[in-house]
Design brief:
4 domains; three-stranded antiparallel beta sheet; 8 helices; 8 strands; 52% helix; 23% strand
């Protein structure tokens, strides 16, 4: 008997077809799989910017925040929620409130806040932006109701610090940090504006009268001192008289009054009596 011929090492098994059709089928399957990989590649890759974080959920369970940079998600298993970490500037709509001294005011403010914990901002609150805005509105009305009008107008800094402290304490469980709260404008009723204008006018008049009375008092003291000097030195009266004539001459008046000393008149009266 003749021994069977040895097969080459790279020959396919006897049960595997090695014809042209099989090679075409394998090529088609490889091309189809490559096409699907290229098509699904954007769904696997995620890119997160420097100011963002991606919160990953795998089959509904929290995996944590990733980023910045590029990472791969498992298809059909992972879901990502992007969170912006930049500071948000939000205008609080005008709120009408009654102050502690029963004055109706309308106040609007601006609030600056940002996310410090992306996981809590996604898991613990549905819409952190809207929730923070509502907290700011209710807190603004509450603080206005506990403050007087003079305190609201004159101690704005303390009101801002109080608002920031209260809002930040309430948003801390959501991973939101409130940095600044500023009261922008305070609108008063027209009657209150007129009353404040009258009050300011009366205060100005009072100050003007006090200043004028103080000036008169100081002038009287100086006149008293001058009279004491003139009493000790009679020649000063004559010098003052000449100074007054010089002042009258500079004003180009046509009438000049020469006062006659009483001593001279008494001298003539004495001679008449003699």
């Amino acid at each position: 008997m003749t021994a069977p011929s040895a097969l080459p090492p790279d020959a396919p098994p006897a049960d595997v077809p090695s014809g042209l059709g099989s090679r075409l089928a394998r090529g088609f399957l490889l091309g189809l799989s490559g096409f699907f990989l290229i098509f699904l590649f954007p769904f696997f890759i995620r890119v997160v910017a420097e100011y963002e974080r991606g919160v990953i959920f795998r089959l509904g369970r929290l995996q944590g925040a990733k980023g910045p940079g590029m990472f791969i998600l498992l298809p059909m298993a992972d879901r990502m929620v992007k969170v912006d970490l930049r500071t948000v500037t939000h205008d609080v709509p005008g709120q009408e409130a009654i102050t502690r001294d029963n004055v109706t005011v309308k106040v609007n403010a601006v609030i600056y806040f940002r996310i410090v914990d992306a996981n809590m901002a996604v898991v613990r609150v549905t819409d952190w932006l809207r929730a923070t805005s509502q907290i700011a509105q209710t807190t603004l009305r509450s603080v206005l109701g506990q403050s007087e009008l003079d305190e609201l107008l004159g101690e704005r800094e303390r009101i801002n610090e109080r608002l920031q402290s209260i809002i930040d304490e309430q948003t801390e469980p959501w991973g939101v940090k409130v940095s600044v709260v500023e009261v922008k404008d305070v609108e008063l009723p027209a009657t209150m504006q007129r009353a404040m204008a009258r009050q300011a006018e009366a205060e100005r008049e009072r100050r003007a009268k006090v200043i004028a009375a103080d000036g008169e008092f100081q002038a009287s003291e100086r006149l008293r001192d001058a009279a004491a000097v003139m009493a000790t030195e009679p020649i000063t009266l004559q010098l003052r008289y000449l100074q007054t004539l010089a002042e009258i001459a500079t004003e180009k008046n046509s009438t000049i009054v020469f006062p006659i000393p009483i001593d001279l008149i008494e001298m003539f009266l004495g001679r008449g009596n003699g």
